[in-house]
Write a structure and sequence with these properties.
heterodimer; A: 191 residues; Rieske Iron-sulfur Protein; 2 domains; three-stranded antiparallel beta sheet; elongated; B: Cytochrome Bc1 Complex, Chain C; 1% strand; binds protoporphyrin IX containing FE; binds FE2/S2 (inorganic) cluster
Chain lengths: 191, 426
C-alpha cells in the first residue's frame, strides 16, 4: 500500500515520535472517537423530540373553584388532559378512612398524608386507575363506589376506599395525589 | 442456493437476454418463485399460508396507502376524517373495510403459518434463522396493527392506546417517564396520534424488508415438508412453477372467498361498536378489549392479579405477556428431538393439540370480562402455556420414541423409492 503521510517503517516512526504509537493509529482513534461522540450527540434531539412539547407542558396547571361542592359530592375536572377527582368527604367518610390500620394497606398512607392540613375533607386525586389507566367510577352522581365506598374501576375490578387508597384488585398503588395548593379558601391550583 | 438439478434460466428473447446482462431481475424471480426453484413434491395446504401472508401484506399496503390519502392524523378531526372515508369518498367504505378486515385476515393466515411451524417442526435446524425472522415479523405486525387501530380515534382506539402504553408505566422507576416519552404527553393526544400514524405507515415497509430476509433464509435449505425428511434427489421435488403457483393460486381463491364474505356481508363482525363513538378521555368504555388477534396475550397479561415475591402483579403481567412471544425465539433449542414432523412423534403430537386447546382457552378468556371464572381459567392456561415450552417440549424430546421415518419423500409419496432399494442392496 502506498504511504503518503510519512514512512511506513515502524522503527523510523518509533524513533521520530519516541512513544511507539503510530501517527495513523492516533489519527484513526481521534477520528473514530470524534465521529462517535458526534453520532451520539445527534441522538439527543432525535430522542428528545418525542417527549412532551412546550405547549403540552404549558397546559400543565389548572385552577378549580370548590365553593359549589357539597359534603358527600364529588366532581370530575381535567388536569393534563386526564380526569381529576375532587371530593368533599363527609365526617363519616373521614372517620372510615382513619379507622383503617395503615400497616395493612398495599400502599400505606394515612388520609392526612393525602390531604392538606386543615382541609382534610378535600380529597383531590387523579381519576386514573393505577392499574392500567382506566377512569374509575364513583365521582359522578349515581355511579357505583365499590365495596370500600370510594371508587371502583370497572376495567379489572380495583376498589379504592374513601381516601382513594387501593384496597382490592390488581392496581398496585393508591390513586395519585397531584401537586396542588389552596390559593384561597375555596380555590385550588393543581400542578 | 438451490439443488443441482434445478432448471436453468435461459432467456431466448433478445430483450430478455439484454435485460439479464444488465439487471438479472427476471433470473432472480425465476430462481426464487419460478421453474428454477425445486420444492418438495409432497407439500400440503398448510404450506400455502406463507404466500397468503405475502398477499395480505400487499393488500394492507395498497389499501393503507389509499386510506392515508383521505385520512387526517389530528386528534380534532381524525374520527371525522374516518367517517368522511366511510360516507363521502368514492368506494371509501370498501377500502376501509378491506383494510380493517385485511388486518384480521393477515393474522388468521399468520397464526396458521406459525402453527404449521409448531406441528411440523419447521423451526429446527437448518431453518432456525427463518423461524427467528418470522417471530420478528410477528412482533412488528402486532405493533403495526396496534398503532393502526388507534388511528380512527374512537373510544376503543383511545382506551386501547391508554392501556397498552400504560403497560410501560409498570416498569419500576423509569416507567412513567418512558410512558410520557412514548405518548409525547400525559395521556394519548395529538402527539401520540401523529407518531402512531407515522410509524403505522412506516412499519409495513420494514415488515416487507424482513420478509425478504425471511425468504432469502428459506431459499438456502429450501422448504421443509410434511414428512420432515430432507430432499435427497430430484424425484423428491417438483419445480415451484407451475406446480405450486397453481396450488397456491387455488388456495388464494379459497382465501379470497372467505375474506370477501367478511368484507361484503359482515364487515363489522370482528370490530367493536364502541369504536364508532369518538374518543372521550373522561369516560372509559365498560369493557375494554383489544382486537381478537391479541386476546391470548391479553389473557396472559390479566392473569397476574397477585404479587410474586417483590414483583408487583402489574409488572409480572407485562413481563409474562412479552415472554409469551419471546419464548418462541428459543423454540429451536428447547425442542431437541432430531425428528421434525409431528406425524412421526406420537407423544409430541398429543401435547401439540393440548397447546392448541390451551391457546383457545386463553383466546376465549382474553375476550371475556375480567371476572371469575375467566381469571382463574387464564391463570391455569397461562401456567400451562409456559410449561409447554419450557418443560414439556424438552422432556418429550428426551423421552419419546419416534415412529420410523420413510427413506425419502419419494418413498413416502409413492410407497417405494428406487434409490432406497439401491441403498439397501449395497
Ligand atoms: C402490516 C400491515 C398493516 C396492518 C396489520 C394494518 C392494520 C390496521 C388496522 C387494524 C387499522 C384500524 C382499522 C379500523 O379500525 O378501521 C388500520 C388503520 C389504518 N391504516 Fe393500516 N395496517 C397495515 C398497513 C398499512 C399501510 C401500509 C398504510 C399506509 C401506508 C396504512 C394506513 C392506515 C390508515 C390511514 C388507517 C386509518 C383509517 C382507518 O381506520 O380505516 N396501513 N390499519
Ligand atoms: S385499569 Fe383499573 S383495574 Fe385495571
Amino acid at each position: 500500500m502506498a504511504d503518503t503521510t510519512g514512512t511506513a517503517d515502524p522503527a523510523v516512526i518509533a524513533g521520530t515520535e519516541g512513544e511507539g504509537i503510530r501517527r495513523r493509529d492516533f489519527i484513526n482513534i481521534a477520528a473514530v472517537g470524534a465521529a462517535g461522540v458526534g453520532g451520539i450527540a445527534t441522538l439527543v434531539p432525535l430522542i428528545s423530540q418525542m417527549a412532551p412539547s412546550k405547549d403540552v407542558l404549558a397546559e400543565s396547571s389548572t385552577e378549580v373553584d370548590l365553593a359549589a361542592i357539597q359534603p358527600g359530592q364529588a366532581i370530575k375536572a381535567i388536569f393534563r388532559k386526564q380526569p381529576l377527582f375532587i371530593r368533599n368527604l363527609t365526617a363519616k367518610e373521614i372517620a372510615e378512612a382513619n379507622a383503617v390500620d395503615v400497616a395493612s394497606l398495599r400502599d400505606p398512607q394515612t388520609l392526612d398524608e393525602r390531604t392538606k392540613p386543615g382541609k382534610e375533607n378535600w380529597l383531590i386525586t387523579m381519576g386514573v386507575c393505577t392499574h392500567l389507566g382506566c377512569v374509575p367510577l364513583g365521582a359522578a352522581e349515581g355511579e357505583v363506589k365499590g365495596e370500600f365506598g370510594g371508587y371502583f374501576c370497572p376495567c379489572h375490578g380495583s376498589s379504592y376506599d374513601t381516601a382513594a387508597r387501593i384496597r382490592k384488585g390488581p392496581a398496585p398503588k393508591n390513586l395519585e395525589v397531584p401537586e396542588y395548593e389552596f390559593t384561597s379558601d375555596t380555590v385550588v391550583k393543581i400542578g | 442456493m438451490s439443488f443441482p438439478w434445478a432448471n436453468h434460466y435461459t432467456p431466448s428473447h433478445p430483450v430478455m437476454k439484454w435485460m439479464d446482462e444488465k439487471l438479472p431481475l427476471p433470473r432472480l424471480v425465476y430462481n426464487a418463485v419460478g421453474a428454477g426453484y425445486p420444492v418438495p413434491r409432497n407439500l400440503n395446504y398448510m404450506w400455502n399460508f406463507g404466500v397468503l401472508a405475502g398477499f395480505c401484506l400487499m393488500l394492507q399496503i395498497v389499501t393503507g396507502v389509499i386510506l392515508a390519502m383521505h385520512y387526517a392524523a389530528n386528534a380534532g378531526v381524525a374520527f371525522a376524517s374516518t367517517e368522511h372515508i366511510m360516507r363521502d369518498v368514492n368506494w371509501g367504505w370498501m377500502l376501509r373495510y378491506a383494510h380493517a378486515n385485511g388486518a384480521s385476515a393477515f393474522f388468521v393466515v399468520v397464526y396458521l403459518h406459525i402453527f404449521r411451524g409448531f406441528y411440523f417442526g419447521s423451526y429446527k435446524a437448518p431453518r432456525e434463522m427463518i423461524w427467528l425472522l418470522g417471530v420478528v415479523i410477528f412482533l412488528l405486525m402486532m405493533a403495526t396493527a396496534f398503532m393502526g387501530y388507534v388511528l380512527p380515534w374512537g373510544q376503543m382506539s383511545f382506551w386501547g392506546a391508554k392501556v397498552i402504553t400504560g403497560l410501560f408505566g409498570a416498569i419500576p422507576v423509569v416507567g412513567e417517564p418512558i410512558q410520557q416519552w412514548l405518548l409525547g404527553g400525559f395521556a394519548p393526544d395529538n402527539a401520540a396520534l401523529n407518531r402512531f400514524f407515522s410509524l403505522h405507515f412506516l412499519l409495513p415497509f420494514v415488515i416487507a424488508g424482513v420478509v425478504i430476509l425471511h425468504i432469502w433464509a428459506l431459499h438456502i435449505p429450501g422448504s421443509s415438508n410434511p414428512t420432515g425428511v430432507e430432499v435427497k434427489s430430484e424425484s423428491d421435488t417438483v419445480p415451484f412453477h407451475p406446480y405450486y403457483t397453481a396450488k397456491d393460486g387455488f388456495g388464494l381463491g379459497v382465501f379470497l372467498l372467505i375474506y370477501c364474505a367478511f368484507l361484503f356481508f359482515m364487515p363489522n363482525q370482528l370490530g367493536h361498536p364502541d369504536n364508532y363513538i369518538p374518543a372521550n378521555p373522561l369516560s372509559t368504555p365498560a369493557h375494554i378489549v383489544p382486537e381478537w388477534y391479541f386476546w391470548p396475550f391479553y389473557a396472559i397479561l390479566r392473569a397476574f392479579t397477585f404479587d410474586i415475591f417483590f414483583i408487583p402483579a402489574k409488572l409480572m403481567g407485562v413481563l409474562a405477556m412479552f415472554s409469551a412471544i419471546l419464548v418462541w425465539f428459543f423454540l429451536p433449542w428447547l425442542d431437541n428431538s432430531p425428528v421434525r414432523s409431528g406425524h412421526y412423534r406420537p407423544m409430541f403430537k398429543k401435547f401439540f393439540w393440548i397447546l392448541v386447546i390451551d391457546m383457545a382457552v386463553l383466546f376465549y378468556c382474553g375476550g371475556a370480562p375480567a371476572e371469575e371464572p375467566f381469571v382463574m381459567m387464564s391463570q391455569i392456561a397461562t401456567a400451562y402455556y409456559f410449561l409447554h415450552f419450557l418443560v414439556v417440549l424438552p422432556l418429550v424430546a428426551l423421552m419419546e420414541k419416534p415412529k420410523p421415518l420413510p427413506f425419502s419423500i419419494t418413498e413416502a409419496v409413492l410407497g417405494s423409492d428406487d434409490a432406497a432399494k439401491l441403498a439397501a442392496k449395497s
